Amino acid sequence: MGSASSTTAVRARCVSSSPTRGANRAAVAVGHSQLVIVYHVLRDDQPFEDLGANYFDERDREQVRRRLTRRLQALGFEVTAALPA
Fold first, then answer.
1. Tens digits of per-residue pLDDT, 15-27?
2. Percent above pLDDT 70 for the chain
3. Nearest to residue 16, comparing CAs of 47, 48, 56, 68?
4. Greatest extent of the chain over all pairs of C-alpha atoms, in Å
5. Cα distance between residue 46 and residue 76, in whole Å
6. pLDDT range class, residue 82, cuts 50, 70, 90
7. Do the beta carbons of residue 14 and residue 57 sit within 8 Å?
8. Each residue of 53-79: b (16+ CB within 10 Å) or e?
């Protein structure tokens, strides 16, 4: 089963970079991520722990909010973002 059919941080990397870089560069980026994972697992002698499919969204929530706000504004929506009380 490849990274494109699972809910992992590697799949999230593929999905996030594919539209901007193209499918081939996204595949290279995913391969690089997998090599880095293998390197750290072998170097540290620790089992692999997946970061989860939403790792990149949770890492910088403010950046995600700004990006999505700009995207909605470009589509003609008026956007106000507020955190739930």
1. 666 666 788 888 8
2. 81
3. 56
4. 51
5. 49
6. confident
7. no
8. eeebeeeeeeeeeeeeeeeeeeeeeee
